[in-house]
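Ticket 4471: requesting a sanity check on a complex prediction with uridine-5'-diphosphate-glucuronic acid. Repro inputs:
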Amino acid sequence: MRLTMVGTGYVGLVSGTCFAEFGIDVTCVDKIEDKITRLKKGEIPIFEPGLEDLVAKQVKAGRLHFTTDLADSVKNADAVFIAVGTPPRESDGHADLKYVHAAAKEIAELAEGYTVVVTKSTVPVGTAREVEAIIAKHKKPDAIIDVCSNPEFLREGAAVNDFMRPDRVVIGTDSDRAAAVLKEVYRPLYINETPMVITTPETSEIIKYAANAFLATKITFINEIANLCEASGANVQHVAKAIGLDGRIGSKFLHAGPGYGGSCFPKDTLALTQTGQLLNAPQTIVEAVVEANKNRQIQMAERVIAACGGSVKGMKIGVLGVAFKPNTDDVRDAPALTIIPLLQEAGAHVIAHDPEAQEEADKHLKNVTWVENPYDVSSDADAVVIVTEWNEYRGLNMAKIADQMKVKRLVDMRNIYKPDLMRELGFHYVSIGRPDVDAQDQTQGGLKKVS
Ligand code: UGA
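Returned structure tokens:
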């Protein structure tokens, strides 16, 4: 079995490497020469736990190859995966398919014999049919090519494990022959009895967007419930736990926080609303989610300002974490990229730390003082804000942080610390959707403390 992976971005590189781990011969192709040169040297362009070792292992085993030349690998491939970017178009937010279409044309011109072309990029419903049409127009006369949709559900930071132990594999095709090839590709997963959903391309494409939009909705829902908890003295963590115990709801993706970010949820929710409009099936719930999440990130900056007494002018604010979530250096649509500029606009000086994402974030932010040690954000600070729940922030010596601060204010947007303990250390402690938001506020609001 031989596979070609077109595009060595997040999905392409992880999927290609994991397919090689399955024992398949995989060639990863990318147009960016520098990227391929670095990959050949074992340099991984993204931070993803476990990936570097796996790439090295598979290259050494002779199963994983990197090239800029599509021709050779496509000719010999049983399946060619398209894993190129589908960024939102600036004009309307619709997923831009120009790279997918270009890849389909190139593959069609090169493929020989029987080949399955698989769309792995997140693409709107109807794309597999478009790819089919492009291929029919450009393929060699004696080549037989089937098209499949095979969306990916891996999470950044847990990508290798998600790929190796997926909840399900979705294959969308009209061709039994193509389905058989993909079943063979995923055969090692049968050992774990991974469910396979074999369906049409349209259904498969919608499954991917529906999954991401549903998860984004779940997060946005619990964020609004957190607001209600704050307004009434309830505890969102208890609410999430109790509703999550209902098997129909499920416990995952119910952590209230500063709003979702990343390369997927913001882009995919927007693209789904665009497709809904286009096909006259408006996705009004998801439209509301997009709007609520945008506001959520802005409200988080307002929350910091409120915690500082209504103004941060001239204040020094320490920020812990700028990546959109832990275990990644990705800052795309990260809450920190909205929160930090708003605090600066309001007159604050921001000192920030992130174990991996500093370089990426610095491309989008101005006038931030970066520190290498998380404790240094608190030195002489008027407030410390935890935006990303990196593991290394969970066990900080908070007494030391308190001692170093000018004013002991802590805004914990991920609820990683216990309100009582923080108050014992003298912090004015603000978290998300928990009753002990602030002792003073509670006295003023006449709300009862819930333990
Ligand atoms: C997401 C999906 O979880 C993957 O299944 C999917 O394959 C991927 O998008 C994609 O389409 O490629 P990812 O963006 O890597 O994965 O990150 P998540 O772990 O889903 O987190 C997304 C955002 O939601 C983060 O900002 C995170 O902090 C936030 N989140 C997540 C919460 O605020 N609360 C939660 O309970 C869970």
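Notes from triage: The CA atoms of residues 114 and 263 lie 34 Å apart. Leaving this open until the requester confirms.
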